[in-house]
What does this fold into?
Amino acid sequence: MRGLLEDGIKLESWKEEYARKTPTSKALFDKAGGVLPGGVSYAIRDFMPYPFYVDHASGCRLYDVDGNVYTDYWVGHGALILGHAPRRVINVVKRQMTQGTHLGYAHPLEVKLAKLVAEMVPSARMVRFTSSGTEANMYAVRLARAYTGRMEIAKFEGGWHGGYDTLHKAVHAPFTIPESAGLDSKALEDTFVLPFNDLEAARKLAKSDNLAAMIVEPVLGAGGFIPPEPDFLAGLREICDGSKTLLIFDEVITGFRLAQGGAQELFGISPDITTLGKILGGGFPIGGLCGRRDIFEHIDHHKYPDSATRSFQGGTFVGNPISTIAGIETLSILREGKIYERLDRLGKKVRSGLEDVFGRNDIDASITGMGSVFAIHFQKETPRNAREVARNNVKLANALHMFMLSRNIAYVSPSLPHMFLSSAHTDRDVEKFLVAVEDFTKKVKP
It folds into this structure.
């Protein structure tokens, strides 16, 4: 893989091709820098040489301001399991918009969505909504501390739980430097970090008598879609039971994606608290937390009228009728049971296809993921945790991203390609994706 990647000739030609077909996006990006820090609303949406700007989207297609059409493997950060603008969801949202976009009072839709969640998620007995996954994790941690009377929290390297100070730690290698300027060091003092898939480390930490909760993504998400080893989640459940520590599953990504009941249904492990987001809102902003009744009663202002004993949770837009009705329709479609078998089949097709392509072309790459998610790691050994993911050949990963853009295939994770499928993707889309990757391997071979 020397030569073309090192001298940059081919990479530059892909950039030039991209620039030729996206002049309006370039002009917009130049303007954006004057009003949006970094020119974007979220840093991960920026990529070299500049992001294209989407005009509209439908199914698994993005249409940019220059008239280019891309096949989308990011699908709203994984939130759009039905693809962009699914007709049934759009229709119910249109009807609701004429009846009120934000009510600020209790309404039937929040009750209906909460009941759906309780019926679909195995561990859910009570539910509260938030406006984002970050808020869901923030309130879950607070609730765990309120219930246990303990302050320490354990999380896992590479786990992304949003921008909340207490959990904004050890997301990126080398896992020892601050993840952001301005983080309150005192808020991080009680956050302890463990390697993913390492039960012995978790067992040692659980000996602390001040550990309120362990929070884990059942499948490590932004860390590279690393699945748990066979005994890992069951082991965490046993460790938490033995130490009277709460187990929190962050299912913002895996919730309703890997199965109707999320990863906990797939793996048969019940957490004490589950956090949700993305798919829950059917394409609109939402988050949620759910779990055991005895834990969630600590949010109940009737049972705990004293603020010193109650765990506060709320917000202006929680239970927003647009988000809740979109969520109701999306979860109702998923409950029909027709989507998961097809998505799982497409996921297996793309993962096995990628292994075949890289193997035949003698490129060091390993593929991770499960269900409808997959990731490409440019390294020989399959990573089992975020430290091993850090061995990824970033130069090759970035080159793949630029090449795929030249083939009108889009995803938002250049240095660590990890992607989502939606029900709008077809076998033909996957086949075109694999052909593009094969062409890439031929261009970067020494």
